Amino acid sequence: MVLASTANTHCNLNVMLLADTEICRLPIALKNQPIAQGDSMNVDFSKDELAFQEEVRAFFDNKFPDDLKKKTESGIELTRDDFIRWQKIMNQQGWAAINWPVEFGGTGWTPIQKYIYANEIARANAPDMVPFGVKMVAPVIYTYGTAEQCERFLPEILESNVWWCQGYSEPGSGSDLASLKTKADRDGDHYIVNGTKTWTTLAQMADWIFCLVRTSSDVARRQEGISFLLIDMNTPGVTVTPIITIEGGHEVNEVHFENVKVPADNLIGEEGKGWTYGKVLLQHERTNIANVARSKVRLGELRDKTSQEINGGTPLIDDRNFARKLAKVEIELKALEYTELRTLAAVAVGKAPGPESSILKIRGTEVQQGIDELFVEAAGYYALPYVPQQYDLEFPDDERIGHGAETRSSLVYFNNRKASIYGGSNEIQKNIISKHVLGL
Amino acid sequence: MDFTITEEQSMLADSVAKFIENDYDFESRQKAAESELGYNQDLWQTYADLGWTAVPFDEDDGGLGGGPIELMLMMEQFGRGLLVEPFLANIVLAGGVLRRLATEEQKAEWLAGIISGETHAALAFAEPQARFDISNVATSAKVEGDGYVLNGSKSLVLNGGSAKLLIVPARTGGAQSDEDGITLFVVNTDTAGVDVKSYKTVDAQQAAEISFNNVTVSGTDILGTVGDGYSTLQAVIDEATLAVCAEAVGIMRTMHDKTVEYAKSRVQFGVPIGSFQALQHRLVETLMECEQSQSVLLWSAMVNDADGGDARKSIHALKHQIGTAGISVAKEAVQIHGGMGMTWDLDIAHYFKRLAAIDLLFGNADYHLDKFVDLSR
Predict the structure, then answer these.
(1) Per-domain boundaries in chain B
(2) Judging by beta carbons within 10 Å of its beta carbon (0-12, 13-18, 19+), is residue A222 exposed, middle or buried?
(3) Quick check: A325 contacting B, CB < 8 Å?
(4) pLDDT tens, position by position, for chain A (440 residues)?
(5) Per-domain residue ranges for chain A?
(6) Which chain B residues are Cβ-neighbours of A332 within 8 angstroms?
(7) Separation between Cα atoms, residue B363 and residue B238, nearest integer Å
(8) Terminus of chain B with fewer CB atoms < 10 Å: N or C?
């Protein structure tokens, strides 16, 4: 199983092909030398990879609880307890934090194994781990924190005993994150924090929040003087107020800090270096954002659904315009899948996920939103009923309006307009690519 | 799953890349394109000497046994250099049919000369009424004695002006658009009744309108079996589609790179125009189009190499992607170069024309989107 070998008999496709050999007569035959299995381009999984796929598939088939499966398949939101229960099951299997270093509980999987895993968890309709702990704050802690901080925070994250949320954006600091004003003033062995964070996803469920805070205003560049601070949400002076979004849901919040006393031990890394740490975190966030595997599953569902006849009507897939739109999204998604695989291949030969991850974020969210639109189109009139209380397993079936997934399609569509805004808006991603990839 | 290329593949790609980089400048390309022949025969001979013309053929036939991956690697580099020598017509199209169908005697007679660079050949895959449908063949082949008599016309025969050897799909049975009843004939262009009107195309290729007026061919000049030519024709056109898409990816990347460099150096209002966000975001779009196109190309080359279930579908996806993305990258490159992009003297204009031509070749973006839709059902 080789994704990209560093051996000098191979060259990586991403490192494009201008090596310093002289023009020469080609070897007698390109394939006249025996080539070991796995040593040339191969689109199929190897035997080991197939075995791994079977193992992962069997796990999700057997261990993803039926009641949660029923919820995810009916488009019903999982509760806090549901998420915690699921992560504990995953943690028992050793898969709660697949990307972490092995010493802290990660898997040590190859990029192809991670690709297989992502496809299987999507196929099972099982949710990913809530990202704020496992995928966001933990990499910052194990990369920049002290051994003591690792010991204190990482096991609790792995076992899902602590629910985290992210304190980055502020009412006056969205795309221009470095303008943030939440202050943390040092007072002996504590910081005193004052300010407001916003768009804080699931803060209403969170035990802790990781924040970018300003520890110094006396700096040459605004990016300096920002620190990475962990704050217990139960500390006096922390209040959470809900923000209701376009589709009527409560996902995001404002979090207010009024003279909140935070132990200086909760600072990660050096004071004033938080911007650097935060950027690393955002790059991790962006590769996760592409969500290729989930989009593949959703496209398959859409194709199945629109191929069915309803009451003797013509299946929507027979409409050439719709079929073309669907085909275009499928092609874009296939392209994205291979762009992601190429990026993983580059990472496997030692390149860090860099600004290219911005491409995955932009195209990934465009594909997701394209699929959202097609689901709305497929629902027709049944995209219109707004009956949020029916998205509950307890809701009586005979009182349900339309089919749950249909009537939910427009709510998903409206809600997911966020995808091209969060994690650094797609316009900010383009600025990043322009500066760091194109050098403009 | 494995994304590495072999040492041999890497050497091939390096060999072509080095040549394009050091020995194939735009000025000599233009000189060759504007010559009567339309390409440089000495260079064509050089490619044969370097072994490039042998790449896709079996070792037993004097080839190097390359497949879709090798074709992709070479064509990308040909795209970067905007190569005008008729590799596609000779090696991929005509050679593709011979490789699949010719008997040992036929190979000895025709294939060796193509690989050595001495014989030029062409595949007459299009007819005036057929648009992109290769099964729409009105050219007829009627039995007469031991042989056949051909009547009909072929359009846009690539390399038709230079070709000594023509491969001509003609109808020996069935209705005009039937896949059954198409037979592939080898016709020497010297034969009485073959009329060749050669011309240049907008993208500096050379092609011909060829008509057949009671042309007599022998029964031994049939490739494969009578009436069964379609599936091979289809396979060869698929491979040629992959080839021009790889060429297009090389062109797109070159146009994108050159446009980024231009945006850095062109100063207006006292600053490089690349400092304007209105241009920056569009250049990011063209970069993403290049990356996404490279990805679909890689997928298609890999599944075709494995002869996987999605092989045909991937070709349609690829041609759709290249058609739409290629044109959009090309238009942006000309637009951002401003008036300079409009000039004959600048290579950008010629890259644009080749991408526009590639979108049309073997069916445009919309045509392949519909084929993709049909195969998805």
Answers:
(1) 7-119, 123-228, 231-375
(2) middle
(3) no
(4) 333 333 333 332 222 222 223 333 444 444 333 333 445 678 888 999 999 999 999 999 999 999 999 999 888 899 999 999 999 999 999 999 999 999 999 999 988 899 999 999 999 999 999 999 999 999 999 999 999 999 999 999 999 999 999 999 999 999 999 999 999 999 999 999 999 999 999 999 999 999 999 999 989 999 999 999 999 999 999 999 999 999 999 999 999 999 999 999 999 999 999 999 988 777 665 555 688 999 999 999 999 999 998 888 899 999 999 999 999 999 999 999 999 888 877 777 766 666 667 889 999 999 999 999 999 999 999 999 999 888 888 889 889 898 767 889 999 999 999 999 998 899 999 999 999 899 99
(5) 47-129, 163-273, 290-436
(6) 292
(7) 11
(8) C
d(CA B300, CA B319): 10
Name the residue of chain A whose CA is nearest to B253's CA. A16
Using the Cβ of A339 and the Cβ atoms of chain B, whether some distance falls under 8 Å is answered with: yes
Q: CA geometry: angle at A360 spanning A356 and A366, to 5°?
A: 140
**What is the CATH T-level fold of the domain A290-436, as seen in this structure?**
Butyryl-CoA Dehydrogenase, subunit A; domain 3 (1.20.140)
Is A168 exposed, middle or buried (CB count within 10 Å of its CB: 0-12, 13-18, 19+)? buried
Residues of A tagged active-site? 285
Phi (first) and psi of residue B310, to 5 degrees? -90, 10
DSSP class of residue B204 equals S
Residue numbers in A near B283 (CB within 8 A): 434, 438, 440
CATH topology (fold) of B123-228: Butyryl-CoA Dehydrogenase, subunit A; domain 2 (2.40.110)
Predicted-assembly ipTM surpassing the 0.90 threshold: yes
Residue B69, φ and ψ in degrees, nearest 5: -65, -45
CATH architecture of B231-375: Up-down Bundle (1.20)
User: What CATH number labels B7-119?
Assistant: 1.10.540.10
- Whether residue A43 and residue B302 make contact (CB cut-off 8 A), yes or no, is yes
Q: Which architecture does CATH list for A163-273?
A: Beta Barrel (2.40)
